[in-house]
Design goal:
By secondary structure, the protein is of the alpha+beta class. It has 3 domains: about 60 residues, no CATH class; about 70 residues, no CATH class; about 80 residues, no CATH class. The protein is built from 11 helices and 7 strands. Strands 1-4-5-6 form a 4-stranded antiparallel sheet, with no helix packed on it. The chain has a 3-stranded mixed sheet with strand order 2-3-7, with no helix packed on it. α5 packs antiparallel against α6. The model has no long low-confidence stretch (mean pLDDT about 85).
Length: about 260
């Protein structure tokens, strides 16, 4: 039996050696097709085939398979639901009923689905985005209450907040979006800058944005504005006295008389 399994495995590997597959499901389908073809081949020393023997002798003794196929899953525990009603997994966002905002939940992840549990209660399920996706939102409108407070952040909404702070802040936000391939990848960085106005005033954030834009960094971010605010550089930037340079009336030149006298 083991010899037969080894023989079949090597035969399938040889058949697929020169083929290329874009995804794992494509490879699984190709292997299944080869196995089915092998089982349908007639026996060399007896009547029938492996598929025929299975259908006539073995299959009637088997229990039916479950309606849903078994999926391998992994669990992630203790993820907090954000104030926007979403939980984060691998840089993507999945909504949870708003009654659970701030609570810790557990995630069950399969190849296709993410499920959110609180204790033994399943709160919601979402299809996973394609592999490599970033900043994708899976949101059910019924899970979130009405009102602008729970609207998803997008570049237009971020720029509107920046406009309420000042033109320098708008420039910082625009540069963040200019330096990312897709606008959604700049949302977190832009929001980190704007949320500084919650700890510091909007006027101070605007002053810090002006200082950051005057520096050598082409796209200032939180890491550049926060030190300016934390050290108070924005407060003294407009009141710094001008630097006084000494005025030179004339150079001290040793003339011919000096050198002539030294020669005596």
């Amino acid at each position: 039996m083991e010899n037969t399994v080894w023989h079949v495995t090597m035969r399938i590997i040889a058949d697929l050696r020169d083929e290329r597959f874009a995804t794992l499901p494509d490879l699984k389908a190709a292997i299944a097709s080869r196995v089915e073809a092998y089982n349908a081949e007639p026996f060399q020393k007896r009547h029938g085939s492996r598929a025929g023997v299975f259908a006539a002798e073995e299959q009637p003794l088997l229990r039916p398979l479950p309606q849903a196929g078994y999926e391998i899953s992994r669990w992630v525990y203790g993820r907090r639901v954000g104030r926007n009603g979403h939980v984060v997994w691998e840089k993507n966002f999945y909504c949870v009923p708003f009654a659970h905002v701030g609570a810790k939940v557990d995630l069950r992840i399969t190849d296709r689905v993410l499920q959110v549990y609180r204790g033994t209660e399943r709160l919601t399920s979402h299809l996973l985005p394609p592999p490599g996706s970033v900043n994708v939102y899976r949101t059910n409108d019924a899970d979130l209450p009405a009102g602008d407070r729970y609207r998803q952040w997008d570049p237009d909404r971020v720029r509107h907040w920046a406009e309420r702070i000042g033109p320098a802040t708008v420039s910082v936000v625009n540069r963040i979006f200019e330096f990312v391939p897709v606008d959604e990848q700049g949302l977190d960085a832009a929001l980190a800058v704007l949320r500084l106005s919650r700890r510091f005033s909007a006027e101070r954030v605007e002053a810090a944005a002006r200082l950051a834009l005057a520096g050598p960094v082409r796209s200032p971010r939180y890491a550049h504005l926060h030190p300016i605010l934390a050290t108070g550089q924005d407060k003294t930037a407009g009141h710094r006295p001008p630097r006084e340079e000494p005025v030179e009336v004339g150079g001290y030149v040793r003339g011919a008389d000096y050198y002539a006298g030294g020669a005596q």
